[in-house]
Amino acid sequence: MPAAAVEEAFHRGVNYLYWGSIRRDGFAQAVRNLRSHRSRAVLVLQSFSRIARLMQRSVEKGLRTIGYDHADVLLLGYWNSPVPGRILDGARELRRRGLVRYLAVSSHNRPLLAKLANSSDFDIVHLRYNAFHRGAEQDIFPHLPAGGPGVVAYTATCWGRLLNPARIASGERIPTAADCYRFALSHPAVNLCMTGPASMQECRDGLKALEAGPMDEEELAWMRRIATT
């Protein structure tokens, strides 16, 4: 995704800038270009490292690359088992040093995420939620504590399944990526939905979700229906 697409998305209301484990140059350049808007941006750095020292080095290197003194969020990626104390201690040390402000975790293990959401370790949880995968509606959302943590949904298109005409019943309208983002964002427990466009056009197509706003009950029923056919 080119730097210009990231910058356009930011100026149209997308402020959760998630620079993942594969740190592309275009995204890095966009973050540099947006430095004057730092107070409006939420910069997220992710680490899949299972070694605390390597996790810390990854954050330090990322910050040096973009010329920032801190990230707003450190995302500990893909923990389907409890996060070890050594990793949590390393993350807390980064926070103590002022290199990150908040800690987040992602997982496909819904019972585990429900526990982590009710712990004091994490400010944000990233979870799988889309029209096909709705298990969070029973396993996580009802168990969230009042006032937090923040909830970020990913895999909104179900890895493209919900966009594939071959997987949709004949006569049904085929969803767009924006429809998938709207479905996730329409749930009151979801604060944010991730998007991973690969081009300027895909970025603009996704931004239509913000323009259209939440889905009504008829649209939500349509999304659930096509996901089960």
Fold and architecture overview:
The chain is an alpha/beta fold. The chain has nine helices and seven strands, in the order αβαβαβαβαβαβαβαα. It has two domains: 1-107, NADP-dependent oxidoreductase domain (TIM Barrel); 122-229, Alpha-Beta Barrel (TIM Barrel), CATH 3.20.20. The radius of gyration is 18 Å and the shape is globular. The model has no long low-confidence stretch (mean pLDDT 96).
Topology:
Elements: H1 3-11, E1 16-19, H2 25-33, E2 42-47, H3 52-66, E3 71-76, H4 85-96, E4 100-107, H5 110-117, E5 124-128, H6 136-139, E6 150-154, H7 177-186, E7 192-193, H8 200-212, H9 217-227
Parallel strand pairs: 1-2, 2-3, 3-4, 4-5, 5-6, 6-7
| Main sheet characteristics | 7 strands, parallel
Give the number of helices: 9
Report the mean per-residue pLDDT as an integer.
96
| CATH fold call of the largest domain | TIM Barrel
Overall domain count = 2
Broad CATH class of the largest domain: Alpha Beta
Q: Please list the strands of the largest sheet in the order they lie side by side.
A: 1-2-3-4-5-6-7
From the alpha-carbon coordinates, what is the Rg to the nearest angstrom? 18 Å
Q: Please estimate the helix content.
A: 25-40%
- CATH superfamily placement of the largest domain: NADP-dependent oxidoreductase domain
Sequence stretches where pLDDT stays below 50 over 5 or more residues: none
The helix-and-strand class reads alpha/beta
- Which strand-content bin applies to the residues? 15-25%
Give the distance, in angstroms, between the N- and C-terminal Cα atoms: 32 Å
Task: List the secondary-structure elements in sequence, H or E.
Answer: HEHEHEHEHEHEHEHH
Q: How would you sum up the global shape? A: globular
